[in-house]
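S.,

Sequence below, as promised.
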Amino acid sequence: MHIIQQKLLELSKNENLAKLSLRDMARSIGMPNESPQKIKHHVLQLQKKGFLTIDRIKGVMGRTTGEPSWSKGFLQKTSKLFSIPIIGVANCGPATIYAEQNFQGFLRTSSKLIGRSSPKGLYAIKADGSSMNRAEIDGKRIEDGDFVIINSEDVNATTGEVVLAIIDDRAIIKRFIDDRKNGQIVLKADSSYDYEPIYLHPDDEFFINGKVIGVIKGS
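The prediction came back faster than expected:
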């Protein structure tokens, strides 16, 4: 989940978002310079995912007491199959695809392909591009059109791990290199083609939204 959505959910525990302006929300989550349109986008995403209901006319806000309705399918384990939500496309080249797109359905897959006893915290992203076609996850390379399985509960990346990173609200799959000794973080391609790395300052606004833990080959 995007950091702004996390902050808005936390704010909703104590404030009625239906009665707050977008600028008030931005100030309340410690992001006073964030654009109202961006705040609005993330409020809408929370509503689409079932975390919140907001009626500005009546000034009424509701919060889910359990898991959001759209996610119930992937939290329910069957004996053989998982239902893992597909939430958009991540670029395997330059960071050009929005990270947060509309929920696109479920990926039905065997638990044996994922190597997990539970699908909790997992989601799928469709890979777009070839910059990670040499990266192997359990013997499978990440190629254009594959479904990449992300563990959203593991965001503490170490050097060499393949992650889904968010830069300027856009998603990108890259190999994480912690080069803080030189004052930088590197997001590196692992490809048979020549892709330039992305160099970030440790204080730049970027997020690790989870580690890649599996690949389901696209047809």
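The CA atoms of residues 16 and 26 lie 14 Å apart.

Coffee later?
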